[in-house]
Design goal:
globular; two-stranded antiparallel ribbon; Kinase-like_dom_sf; protein serine/threonine kinase activity; EC 2.7.11.1; Ser/Thr_kinase_AS; binds adenosine-5'-triphosphate; seven-stranded mixed beta sheet; 10 helices; Phosphorylase Kinase, domain 1; 15 strands; nucleotide-binding; binds magnesium ion; Transferase(Phosphotransferase), domain 1; about 350 residues
């Protein structure tokens, strides 16, 4: 069993060790900076997680989970850099120089199909690796997919802050995003829901739709959402050929078969993530249908992509309760040990 040590550094210590280059991104729980180690010259991404939004235990869980998955070529690598400052917990990750997937999806247009297929394969392998270890990412979205080149020849899944083990009961975070599965949208906040790999499969299906179209299929998988309701009615009718919901008319029949399996309403009927691999050999978007659907769509509403935040930024990542780091010492130069027993999911 591994023990983790977290060192305390003052802002001045951090500036002495790392040259700040620029901010790479801001998430719900903090920010990520590009820095260079002053003596070694190594560039890295430092993820700062704000202490008032995350417990030490959750932060260490994210760090150790990312580390345990880093052996996959499709998952971001953590570095041996772990410290806390006055207001944040911080860990180092390899730097993805081409940014995240959200940034390169042309709104309302989508990515070229070949690029989407490369992403489907690499992300499918990342998720399949996690699922084989009984872990569920729970926050699959383009903002959490990092790029090493703009053609998506090398991409990696990142942000394991929400990752949990299959079978865990978790509380529903407030709000839903388009990637949230319908059973989670429906779950009561009090009872919560059981974590299953089918949650990632749903989010992966929505992500593939977003990459191919530059739109969301819906804002939330709830009956009150007209786009979702139209899709659901079509599913319930047995997905009849020729009467496709408006947002789905551009896809080939093969792509529609794939989406039916990824986005099955009942979680137990959803396919495994690697079942999409057999669909990458087919054409997914039909140029003819796309043009027809664009003509039909004029004047019709669509749901343009925007960056999505899974949880209420005002509430902590974990269940409510005041943050009190176990074993934390007020003395700044103190090393704090947290054993893996505290951080296992
Ligand atoms: N290693 C990295 N290399 C390059 N950019 C990165 C890296 N890590 C994160 N980023 C950028 O920073 C953003 C936020 O990072 P991350 O998703 O880890 O934070 P978060 O606070 O957990 O986000 P969320 O809002 O999804 O909970 C990413 O969407 C990405 O744009
Ligand atoms: Mg994120």
């Amino acid at each position: 069993m591994q023990a983790l040590a977290i060192t305390s550094l003052s802002a001045a210590d951090v500036a002495k060790q790392y040259e700040h280059i620029r901010e790479l991104g801001k998430g719900t729980y903090g920010k990520v900076d590009l820095v260079a180690h002053r003596t070694q010259g190594t560039k890295m991404a430092l993820k700062f997680v704000t202490k008032n939004k995350t417990k030490l235990k959750s932060f260490l869980r994210e760090y150790s989970l990312t580390g345990s998955l880093s052996c996959s070529p499709f998952i971001i690598k953590v570095l041996d850099v772990l410290f806390e400052t006055e207001d944040s917990y911080v860990f180092g990750q390899e730097y993805a120089p081409a940014g995240d997937l959200f940034d390169i999806i042309p709104p309302q247009v989508g990515l070229p199909e070949e690029m989407v297929k490369r992403c489907m394969q690499q992300l499918g392998l990342a998720l399949d690796f996690m699922h084989s270890k009984n872990l569920v990412h729970r926050d699959v979205k383009p903002e959490n997919v990092l790029l090493f080149d703009r053609e998506c020849r090398r991409i990696k899944l990142a942000d394991f802050g929400m990752t949990r083990r299959v079978g865990c009961r978790v509380k529903r975070v407030s709000g839903t995003i388009p990637y949230t599965a319908p059973e989670v949208c429906r779950a009561s906040r009090a009872e919560g829901f059981l974590v299953t790999t089918s949650l990632d499969v749903w989010a992966f299906g929505v992500l593939v739709f977003c990459m191919l179209t530059g739109n969301f299929p819906w804002e939330a998988a709830l009956p009150a959402d007209a786009f979702y309701e139209e899709f659901r009615r079509w599913q319930k009718a047995g997905c009849p050929v020729g009467t496709y919901p408006s947002q789905w008319r551009r896809f080939t029949d093969d792509a529609l078969r794939m989406f039916q399996r990824l986005l099955a309403a009942e979680p137990e009927k959803r396919c495994g993530v690697k079942d999409v691999f057999c669909f990458v050999k087919y054409e997914l978007v039909s140029e003819l249908r796309r043009r027809a659907s664009c003509r039909a769509k004029r004047g019709e509403r669509s749901t343009p992509l925007k960056r999505s935040v899974l949880s209420d930024p005002l509430s902590p990542r974990e269940e409510s309760g005041q943050h009190q780091s176990p074993g934390r010492d007020k003395n700044k130069s103190q090393m704090v040990m947290a054993t893996a027993i505290e951080i296992c999911v």
